[in-house]
Amino acid sequence: MAKFFKMIGNTFNGVRLELKKVIWPTKEKLKQTSVVCLAIILFFAIFFTVIGTASKWGLEKIGFYDVPTTTETTAAEVAVPETTVAETAEETTAAETVAETSADA
């Protein structure tokens, strides 16, 4: 168990030694690079917004988003067979009779 804690201690010691080798930026350099980074982000946010808006406007002008109108079909135009429960039962019985007759033959 002591070996385990010694390995953890060596790991943290190595991390501490590596962090001492790092050249940290000055406060002025950190401000400067942060401003440049934010300016680039702002530029591309505006750029992509303009591109998206222009693309949408162009697609609307050519009718890309137009939904074609269709004529509504009335119930009289659609032929829907109306069957009752009795008719369905008769068809089932007739089909069973045909199946029994076929099986007997």
List the helices and strands and how they pair.
Blueprint: H1 2-21, H2 27-61, H3 85-104
Can you put this structure into words, describing what you see?
The chain has 105 residues and is mainly alpha-helical. Helix content is 71%, strand content 0%. It contains three helices and no strands. It has helices spanning 2-21, 27-61, 85-104. The longest helix has 35 residues, at 27-61. The model has no long low-confidence stretch (mean pLDDT 83).
What is the gist of this entry?
This protein has 105 residues and is mainly alpha-helical. The chain has helices at residues 2-21, 27-61, 85-104.
Low-confidence stretches are none
Rg measurement, Å: 39 Å
| Distance N to C terminus | 86 Å
Sum up the overall morphology in one term: flat
Strand content: under 5%
Q: Tags for this entry?
A:
mainly alpha, single chain, 105 residues, 0% strand
